[in-house]
Amino acid sequence: MTAMDTAADDTVGDASAGAREQRLSDGRRDRSWRTWPPALPPAARPYLAPLALYGVTKLVGLAVFASLLEYAGDYKGKNPRFGGGAHWWDVLATWDGWWYLQVAEHGYSPSLVRLDSDGLFTVQQNSVAFFPLYPALIRMVSESTGLGLYGSGILVSVVSSFVAAAGVFAVVRLVAGARAGTIAAGLWAVAPGAGVEWAVYSESLFVAIAAWACYAVMTGRWVTAGLLAFTAGLNRPTSAVLIGAVGLAALVTLARPATRREHGVRGPVYAMIVAPLGLLSYIAWVGYRTGEATAYFTLQREGWAHFFDYGAYTLDVLRNLAVGKGDYHFAFSTPDLLSLQLVLALPFLIALMLRKRAPLVLVAYTLATIITVLGTQQMFGNTMRYLLPAFPLLLAPAAALGRLRLPSLVVFFSTAALASGWYAHYVIFELGVP
């Protein structure tokens, strides 16, 4: 074979290889167009079912809520701050939502203004009672997208609710499996008080942070857990229960030689130190700006009549409801009766959660949440909403429902979604004060 023949063969070979590469490239382009939108990453695929269940269930409940509002029409005659508005969706930004939008628009003007009153409220209400993370996100989304503050508030809540549902799924999946996790995400959508998940309220954001903080603890990601607990401290005062649960789990991890060797020391210590700083910083800032170190607690007690009374108010409400009376502060018959049923179910739900051998962080977080809610004077009808963050209570019911076949689950969630438009939405916003 001559050199010329060899060169010719090489040329033919290069051309053939080039043609093959071109065909492969064209095939990849064809497949990319045929599979548009791109397939989900493998790690994200397990979350598709729980998020779809959560979203569909919430949409059905919201549609029922809107229908009830339009049928009754009462919201049209109410003050836009207190459950009213020109359109049904305006109701979703009333009560606490009004305060959050005020903070997002105007910021804070911390002060303690004493009222000439000997009644329940002796201090003028002030926006610093509402923590800054949620309104700050509203303002940031509004300025970056051009949406109004209302639309931004709803957007932040809805996106946060899906992140929260994903967190509920992730936590329950670790304990009881993926099927139970999917059902738990659906149950959180129809839980009593779930109407605020897609409203201008901070519950969805808080549960998103809390669920993933618990997941981080359960998977040994201590730096993440500490940072999430820190962030939660900028969102709600009830973040104290999450901070305590993370700190307790870290302390127990350090106290046991086996887990200390597995997790090390620096991670748990970091979580314990960082977790409370967000909450403490905001409360200290309020005290500094008002000139009174305990200003935040004074405002809660004398401006909103919210304070820890070791369960005296809850006991008074239970006694009154047992004999059919309403001789207590903030009496709203329908929300109070629904909250009463939830309170009566708590011992059973707690026992089932413990029987499932839930991790320490979940048990501590849930029990601390329940003690805080029942031990505080506040509107009893809102117990449904205040217990919404106690998502580990869904662990055992989700595992039990997971044994049902698909047709039975479809019937259950269809019925619950329809009913939630009344008990989880309308009751809170129109028959009580959310």
From TrEMBL:
<feature type="transmembrane region" description="Helical">
    <location>
        <begin position="386"/>
        <end position="402"/>
    </location>
</feature>
<keyword id="KW-0328">Glycosyltransferase</keyword>
<keyword id="KW-0472">Membrane</keyword>
<feature type="transmembrane region" description="Helical">
    <location>
        <begin position="198"/>
        <end position="218"/>
    </location>
</feature>
<keyword id="KW-0256">Endoplasmic reticulum</keyword>
<comment type="pathway">
    <text>Glycolipid biosynthesis; glycosylphosphatidylinositol-anchor biosynthesis.</text>
</comment>
<keyword id="KW-0337">GPI-anchor biosynthesis</keyword>
<keyword id="KW-0808">Transferase</keyword>
<dbReference type="GO" id="GO:0006506">
    <property type="term" value="P:GPI anchor biosynthetic process"/>
</dbReference>
<dbReference type="InterPro" id="IPR007315">
    <property type="entry name" value="PIG-V/Gpi18"/>
</dbReference>
<dbReference type="GO" id="GO:0004376">
    <property type="term" value="F:GPI mannosyltransferase activity"/>
</dbReference>
<feature type="compositionally biased region" description="Basic and acidic residues">
    <location>
        <begin position="20"/>
        <end position="33"/>
    </location>
</feature>
<feature type="transmembrane region" description="Helical">
    <location>
        <begin position="267"/>
        <end position="288"/>
    </location>
</feature>
<feature type="transmembrane region" description="Helical">
    <location>
        <begin position="337"/>
        <end position="354"/>
    </location>
</feature>
<feature type="region of interest" description="Disordered">
    <location>
        <begin position="1"/>
        <end position="37"/>
    </location>
</feature>
<dbReference type="GO" id="GO:0016020">
    <property type="term" value="C:membrane"/>
</dbReference>
<feature type="transmembrane region" description="Helical">
    <location>
        <begin position="51"/>
        <end position="72"/>
    </location>
</feature>
<dbReference type="GO" id="GO:0000009">
    <property type="term" value="F:alpha-1,6-mannosyltransferase activity"/>
</dbReference>
<feature type="transmembrane region" description="Helical">
    <location>
        <begin position="409"/>
        <end position="429"/>
    </location>
</feature>
<feature type="transmembrane region" description="Helical">
    <location>
        <begin position="174"/>
        <end position="191"/>
    </location>
</feature>
<feature type="transmembrane region" description="Helical">
    <location>
        <begin position="361"/>
        <end position="380"/>
    </location>
</feature>
<keyword id="KW-0812">Transmembrane</keyword>
<protein>
    <recommendedName>
        <fullName>Glycosyltransferase RgtA/B/C/D-like domain-containing protein</fullName>
    </recommendedName>
</protein>
<keyword id="KW-1133">Transmembrane helix</keyword>
<feature type="transmembrane region" description="Helical">
    <location>
        <begin position="238"/>
        <end position="255"/>
    </location>
</feature>
<feature type="transmembrane region" description="Helical">
    <location>
        <begin position="147"/>
        <end position="168"/>
    </location>
</feature>
